[in-house]
Amino acid sequence: MGHDLGYAALALIATTVYYIAFLVFRVSARRMEPLRGSRPFRVARLMLTDPVWLGGGLLLFLGLGYEVVAFQQMPLAVAQPIFAVSLVFLVGYAVWFLGERLSLREWASVALFVLATVLIGLSATGDGTPAAHATLVGTLESPWTMLAICAPAVIIAGLVWLVGDRRAGGRHARKLAGVAYGIGAGACAGLAEAGIRGISLVYADTGSLRAVLESAYPYLTLGLAAIALGQLQIALQRCRVAIVAVVLTVIGRSYLIVSSTVLFGEEWPRDALPFLLRAGGFVLALVALVTFPRYEEPGATAALPARAARRKGVRALP
Questions:
Q1: Torsion 72-221-158-98 (CA) sign
Q2: pTM of this structure
Q3: What is the crossing angle of helices 217-238 and 2-31, to 10°?
Q4: Predicted pLDDT at 200
Q5: What's the CA gap between 115 and 79, in Å, rounded?
Q6: What's the maximum distance between 2 C-alpha atoms anywhere in the chain?
Q7: pLDDT tens across 176-196, in order?
Q8: Is 295 helix (H, G, I), strand (E, B) or coil?
Q9: Exposed, middle or buried: residue 119 (CB in 10 Å: 0-12, 13-18, 19+)?
Q10: Confidence at residue 158, expressed as pLDDT on a 0 to 100 scale
Q11: Of 68, 48, 66, residue with least CA distance to 57
């Protein structure tokens, strides 16, 4: 019991550090000149030469690393609610301290996302442990499965970049909302986490670093993580961190679960109740996505920072 509580505490701390990195990235994004997805190398250069962003990246990978350690020792039914609690804390911080404003419709969508995360966690049965030999699916010798898994995430991210960079004219033009960026970055982040999982399984199966390097998983992790981080930075410069972080996390975890069924031989629960819980969680996540507004409302990010700054007794940022 104490052992499990220790891993649960580690998971909560790791997840908190992971989300603190989002706040550091937001500070970095506000310092940068305007970022455009159509110029990815420039985005990468600005990120890698910004010490604030590098500090956030260090926090992100520290949090993610300890998450991997903790969640390998914990059932999904415990891990997913921890994510839900951390998301609630992050949204509360963004609303209270950063002055971000959510409409009733957006609050409802966030609540549905949190509930979906809990339902997916409760659907875990302990069956279907990932098989190490299943990691051979999608290796460099058999690329088509891996390409089929990666293509939707990369296409979604590319489309969001193109639409987000399109200049909408007119006095009433509105910018793309954080939900779109969260979907693109989340799908890529979920695949990057699947790559980390694949690396650990291949190494556990073979004990060989060479076998890991000969698999597709290191390159999957690096490539998709780069796309996810680039899109996240653009999103945090344009949109509310509360929306971006919630959507990115839930989409990432959902994509991780879906890709694991293909890459690692994991199966969906077969018993009626766990199956319904997991299916219900995915349905609620889809409903939340459909409910989210597609465009930012004027003043959602700018109307309240002054009020939030007055709470802290400092001048609001321009």
A1: positive
A2: 0.79
A3: 60
A4: 78
A5: 14
A6: 61
A7: 667 888 888 999 988 888 888
A8: strand
A9: buried
A10: 83
A11: 48
The string of pLDDT tens digits covering residues 281-293 is 899 988 988 888 7
Residue 106 is which amino acid? E
User: Do 180 and 156 contact (CB within 8 A), yes or no?
Assistant: no
3-state secondary structure of 49: coil
Distances (CA, A) of 130 to 21, 28, 32, 126, 137: 29, 38, 42, 11, 12
Contact by Cβ (8 Å): 174, 298: yes
Which pLDDT value is given to residue 305? 42
What residues have CB less than 8 Å from 257, skipping those under 6 apart? 120, 266
Q: Which class for 31: exposed (0-12), middle (13-18), buried (19 or more C-beta within 10 A)?
A: exposed
How far from chain centre, in Å, is Cα 25? 14
pLDDT at 171: 45
Supply 140's token pair. 């460099």
Rounded Cα distance between 103 and 119, Å, is: 24
CB 231 within 8 A of CB 159: no
- Residues sharing a CB contact under 8 Å with residue 209, sequence separation 6 or more, in sequence order: 203
Radius of gyration over every alpha carbon of the chain, rounded to an integer in angstroms:
20
| Amino acid sitting at position 285 | A
- Answer whether residue 133 shows pLDDT above 70: no
pLDDT > 70: percent of the chain: 76
One-letter amino acid at 37 equals G
Cα separation, 317 vs 58, in Å, equals 26
For 37, residues 6+ apart whose C-beta sits below 8 A from its C-beta are 43, 160, 161, 162, 164, 165, 230, 231, 234
pLDDT-derived band at 136 (thresholds 50, 70, 90) equals: low
Tokens for 5, please give them.
Answer: 């509580």
215 alpha-carbon distance from chain centroid: 24
Q: What token pair was written down for 281?
A: 């969680």
Distance CA 118, CA 44 (A): 35
